[in-house]
Amino acid sequence: MLTRTGRIRIRLAAGAIAIAAAAGAWALWPAPTQVPQARHYLNVSACLLTGPGGIAPGTTAAPVWTAMESASLATHVMVSYLSDTGPTDVGPMLNTLIERQCGVIVATSDAAPNVLAASQTNPHQHFLLVTAPGTAAVAGTPNTAVVPQAEAAGRIDNVIRSLAANAPSPGS
Question: What is the CA radius of gyration of the chain?
Fold first, then answer.
């Protein structure tokens, strides 16, 4: 037969075990998942025109797109891309991006002749032409910057940050 002191000790031990079990369960309980939040963008965009391979790894546009996404995360400038399906598709795709009023249109050297022609007929539009290693030098126009691929990430970041700094205030 247990004494009164023994019963108290058993109750205290049982209580301590229950508290330890509850604390362990609380510590191991999965954290609630974060509900995705809508991303708020500035009223300005940067657009990329890619070749038929799009932004798949190994294409000339893949590192360009990565730089654009990185700059977008930092600035809230919306970025998008279109892939052409061949040389005859480049002109209409550039016109589409011009109609979208992209703050800057970034293109790879595959589209160089079309970009330079579009820049001459659309002097209000800004272009950034990224040339692949080994590509012949291309002369830009006043509204077209020509950048070697090795320097593209930094230049894209600067251009997108400039777009963000000059973006119209929300609601205007």
Answer: 28
CATH number, residue 116 = 3.40.50.2300
> Any idea what DSSP says for residue 41?
-
Quote the Cα angle for 56-104-97, to 5°: 70
List, for residues 44-91, the tens digit of each pLDDT value: 999 999 988 899 998 889 999 999 999 999 999 999 999 988 888 899
**What is the number of domains present in the chain?**
1
Q: CA-CA-CA-CA torsion for 67, 70, 74, 75, nearest 10 degrees? A: 50
pTM of full prediction above 0.85: no
* pLDDT tens digits, 103-118: 999 998 778 889 989 9
- Domain of residue 68, residue span: 45-165
Residue 58 region by backbone torsions, left for phi larger than 0, else alpha for psi between -120 and 50, else beta: left
Question: Positive or negative CA dihedral for 86, 91, 97, 102?
Answer: positive
**Residue 85 located in a structural domain:** yes
